[in-house]
Amino acid sequence: MSISGGTDEAARSDSALTDAEVQRLREDFPILQTQVNGHPLAYLDSGATSQRPLAVLDAERDFASTLNAAVHRGAHTLAAEATEVFEDARATVARFVGADDGEIVWTSNATEALNLIAYSISNAASGRGGAAAERFRLREGDEIVTTEMEHHANLIPWQELAARTGATLRVIPLDDDGALRLDVAAEIIGPRTRLIAVTHVSNVLGVINPVSTVVSLAREVGALVVLDACQSAPHLPLDVRALDVDFAVLSGHKMLGPTGIGALYGRRELLEAMPPFLTGGSMITTVTTTEAEYLPPPQRFEAGTQRVSQAVALAAAIDYLTAVGMPRIAAHEAAFGRRLVDGLAAIDGVRVLGAGIDLPRVGLASFDVAGIHSHDVGQFLDDRGIAVRVGHHCAQPLHRRLGIISSTRASTYLYTTEAEVDAVIDGVQAAIDFFRRGA
């Protein structure tokens, strides 16, 4: 794959991307050449969904044009070739996160992946899966632990699992800045803890959580760890084995890929013991009118027609990110995250959520403007062609803990320029001046 202006030497470096390199990368993203409300688009909403380079758009179209066929089902040449490309895409995801091919399960998104884990555990609790699934069976008195900063997708499935099994859901609280209270976590996580679900990077605060500390607490009591990597996989080098987590989830549309595709990583021995979540075709070996036997993972968890062209496109996105270099993207993001936080926090009346947390961060900042609703701030910026996210970002408990209802979020990516970051900061100051004049 070719990337405009990319070099192997640059990809090996861990220095931040230069302005010239970012400008060359932007040529690969057609949508960044458009205008919004008479202004060049400044896309600062990659935390919600990222844009796609030509290599990704071409990969999905080329598959549909030349290889489209049902995978794992046909004996004809086209089906065999489609299956090979599909499984190559799985191998690409596995390499990207430091896993084996058989430890990657395709899902529609990270939300489905988290629900897959929760419902599989629920099925084990009802007796499915036999003796192998005994380790997953939750009973009254068992505890599931998550945190007060989670995206709803990493909270509600555990609420529902607790309701179905009689287990208790416990929540690690935050301090006044929004950081995890690890001292309290050490008290909450104990002999009854069976599973801990935590985000790697907060989609509101932008901070990189100390996952190793949470994993250490889990290992002391034999609990499983589920990592929400939706905001880390696009921006940081990710190695699930080095992190020592049991499960991790990611979503393609946040990392230059298409919508409708995500992935679940699970330790092989765990996936082999888990009962299926969705059932139907393509995940079975033998079926009678009264019972069925299931394939080993990952196919056990991939019932029905799969998201083949999307998987191929996600692999192309990962190839693109790898060619640019994840360490370089991380350095780029860290610099812009700090620039956003410092620039916004310097504005009178602006509160940057999590600004006081002394942890590394990605290129994301959420903020509250005193006396101005986040929707009004977002609309003002949109009038200038600046796209940001407004609302609670699917993290109502976190906003409630910080004493606000909603916030405005600016999030960067490898194609974001310094001028765009500064445009957000300047735009917020202009919004305050505008609304104060109208008050």
Can you give a write-up of this model?
- This protein has 439 residues and is α/β, with parallel strands linked by helices.
- It folds into two domains: 8-52 and 325-438, Aspartate Aminotransferase, domain 1; 61-321, Type I PLP-dependent aspartate aminotransferase-like (Major domain) (Aspartate Aminotransferase, domain 2, 3-Layer(aba) Sandwich), CATH 3.40.640.
- It contains 15 helices and 17 strands.
- The protein has helices at residues 8-12, 19-26, 54-66, 77-97, 110-125, 156-165, 182-188, 211-221, 240-243, 268-273, 308-324, 326-345, 374-383, 396-401, 418-438; strands spanning 35-36, 39-40, 42-43, 104-107, 143-147, 168-172, 193-199, 224-228, 247-251, 262-266, 284-287, 292-294, 350-352, 364-369, 386-387, 389-391, 407-411.
- Strands 4-10-9-8-7-5-6 form a seven-stranded mixed sheet, sandwiched between helices. A four-stranded antiparallel sheet has the order 13-14-17-16.
- Helix 9 links the parallel strand 8 (224-228) and strand 9 (247-251).
- Helix 4 (77-97) crosses helix 11 and helix 12 runs parallel beside helix 15 (418-438).
- The longest helix has 21 residues, at 77-97.
- The termini are far apart.
- The model is unreliable at 4-12 (pLDDT under 50).
